[in-house]
Design goal:
alpha+beta; about 280 residues; globular; 4-stranded antiparallel sheet; 4-stranded mixed sheet
C-alpha cells in the first residue's frame, strides 16, 4: 500500500465543472493554482449569497470547458446546442449578463486571486478523498458510477494505492500532520456534506433517499482507524485541510502563527502521501 496522488482537480468557477491537471502550485492560503486558482471565481446573487447548487439547482445544467492559459470559459447548456464563450478578464460584464438571463435574476461574478472562495474558510486547503472511497460510495447506489460520484463530491485531491476511507487517517481527536510530496499539511476534520451530493451533477435530479442511504452505509462501513468522536452525524466524507503554519518568534511570552513556509511549492500526480 503506497498512498499517492492519483488525481488533481481544480474548479476555476465555484459550483461549475472541474479541470483535471497534472500539477498545481500551493498558495499561502492553501488554495491550489494551475494558471487559475481553485474556486478563484464565484457567482453571487443580489443579496451577496453564492449562486450555487445549494440555492439554485438550475446551475447543475451548466457545462463548462476552461482554457486555463487564455482565461477562456466556454458554457454549454446541458442537452442543447447553446454554447457561448467568455474571457474571464475581458468579458466579465457580458458573462454576468448571460448568467443573469439564464438564472432569471441579477448575478455578479467576483474573484479572489489569493484564496479563492472555499466552503470552509477556517480550513481552506484542498479537500482530499481516495479513489477507492468514491468507488465504494458508487457501489451503494444502483445506476451510479465512479465519475458520477466524483462529480458530486468535488474533491481537489484523490489518493490512490489505498483502501476505501483511508483518508479518515488524516484526522483524529486532534489535527493530524501529513505531507504530500514535500508540502506539509494539517488534516482537520471530515467534511460535512450538503444537499448538492444528493443530486445528479449534470441534471440536478435528486437520487431517491440518497442521504438516508449514505448515512446508513457510512456508519456501517466506518473503518477501525476512524476516530468516531469526530462524527456528530455520519453525513460526512472527504477531509478538510490547511497548510501547516510556522511559528513566529515569541513576543511578550506568546507565540503566534506566521505565514506558511509551504507557499509556492508544487504538488503533482504521483507524489507520495505520508502521515507524520
Amino acid at each position: 500500500m503506497i498512498p499517492h496522488i492519483a488525481k488533481l482537480s481544480i474548479y476555476p468557477i465555484k459550483s461549475l465543472d472541474a479541470v483535471s491537471v497534472e500539477q498545481v502550485t500551493v498558495l499561502e492560503s492553501g488554495a491550489l493554482k494551475q494558471s487559475l486558482t481553485d474556486r478563484q471565481w464565484a457567482i453571487f446573487d443580489e443579496l451577496g449569497n453564492f449562486a450555487n447548487g445549494k440555492r439554485h439547482p438550475k446551475i447543475h445544467a451548466l457545462r463548462t470547458q476552461f482554457y486555463l492559459d487564455t482565461n477562456i470559459v466556454e458554457l454549454n447548456l446541458q442537452n442543447t446546442d447553446i454554447r457561448v464563450s467568455f474571457n474571464l478578464k475581458q468579458d466579465l460584464a457580458a458573462l454576468e449578463e448571460w448568467l443573469s438571463n439564464y438564472f432569471g435574476f441579477p448575478v455578479w461574478v467576483r474573484q479572489n486571486l489569493d484564496a479563492g472562495f472555499p466552503d470552509d474558510i477556517i480550513s481552506p486547503g484542498p479537500t482530499i478523498i481516495s479513489t477507492a472511497t468514491l468507488e465504494t460510495v458508487a457501489s451503494w447506489y444502483p445506476g451510479l458510477d465512479l465519475e458520477q460520484v466524483r462529480r458530486r463530491f468535488r474533491a481537489n485531491i484523490e489518493i490512490g494505492g489505498v483502501p476505501a476511507f483511508w483518508e479518515d487517517r488524516l484526522f483524529g481527536a486532534q489535527t493530524v500532520n501529513f505531507q504530500i510530496g514535500d508540502v506539509k499539511f494539517i488534516g482537520v476534520n471530515p467534511c460535512q456534506r450538503c444537499v448538492v451530493i444528493t443530486r445528479d451533477a449534470q441534471t440536478g435530479e435528486a437520487y431517491p433517499n440518497f442521504q438516508k442511504i449514505f448515512v446508513t452505509k457510512r456508519r456501517e462501513t466506518l473503518p477501525e482507524w476512524t476516530d468516531k468522536s469526530r462524527f456528530n452525524h455520519f453525513y460526512r466524507l472527504a477531509i478538510n485541510t490547511r497548510l501547516r503554519e510556522i511559528q513566529a518568534s515569541p513576543r511578550d511570552g506568546k507565540v503566534s502563527p506566521a505565514p506558511s513556509s509551504e507557499r509556492g511549492k508544487i504538488i503533482k500526480i504521483g507524489d507520495l502521501v505520508k502521515i507524520d
